[in-house]
Amino acid sequence: MAEDGTDTYIEVCSKSDIWIGEMEAFKVGRHNVLVVNVDGEFRAYDGRCPHQGRPLIHGELEDGVLTCRAHQWTFDVRSGNSINPSAQCLRRFPLRIEGDKVMVAEQPDQAGATAHRHNVGNLT
Ligand code: FES
């Protein structure tokens, strides 16, 4: 977060670089961030699995469900909430679209993991 209290956003790619149903990993500041295109809307999450920190980019994304390759934990990429096991979630990074640019904040959402469950409609 910048000194004035606002997030600093980094351009990671163009909207057309990640097709619907695809994902890509980027280095944003000191974080590895996973950007997902969900039905034309973009989400950004910590690129490490909340289980044991394995890179989620090596997982499978199908029908909005991301499966970690390491131990098959599954996540709904629309909300970031886990499916199996339940009560886990991906750490969200604020994301905004500027024209064709996909911009991701250098710092994760400060509201914490539980915010995912209440801000589903406010992710872009
Ligand atoms: S590290 Fe992802 S399920 Fe274990």
Bound molecules: FE2/S2 (inorganic) cluster
Under CATH, the homologous superfamily reads Rieske [2Fe-2S] iron-sulphur domain
Second-tier CATH architecture: 3-layer Sandwich
Count of domains: 1
Tell me the overall shape: globular
- Derived from helix and strand composition plus strand pairing, the structural class reads mainly beta
For the sheet with most strands, the description reads: 4 strands, antiparallel
| N-to-C series of helices and strands | EEEEEEEEEE
Please give the alpha-carbon distance between the first and last residues.
Answer: 18 Å
State the name of the first-level CATH class. Mainly Beta
| Extended strand count | 10
Number of DSSP helices? Answer: 0
Helix content: under 10%
Strand order of the largest sheet: 5-6-7-8
Radius of gyration: 13 Å
The mean pLDDT is 89
State the low-pLDDT regions, or none. Answer: 113-124
Feature tags:
single chain; about 120 residues; mainly beta; Rieske Iron-sulfur Protein; four-stranded antiparallel sheet; three-stranded antiparallel sheet; 10 strands; globular; disordered C terminus; binds FE2/S2 (inorganic) cluster
Description:
The protein has strands at residues 9-14, 23-28, 31-38, 41-46, 60-62, 65-67, 74-76, 82-84, 95-98, 101-105. The protein is mainly β and 124 residues long. It has a single domain (9-120), classed as Rieske Iron-sulfur Protein (3-layer Sandwich), CATH 2.102.10.10. The strands form three sheets. A four-stranded antiparallel β-sheet has the order 5-6-7-8, with no helix packed on it. A three-stranded antiparallel β-sheet has the order 1-10-9, with no helix packed on it. It has a three-stranded antiparallel β-sheet with strand order 2-3-4, with no helix packed on it. β7 and β8 form a beta hairpin. Residues 113-124 have low confidence and may be disordered. FE2/S2 (inorganic) cluster (FES) binds next to loops.
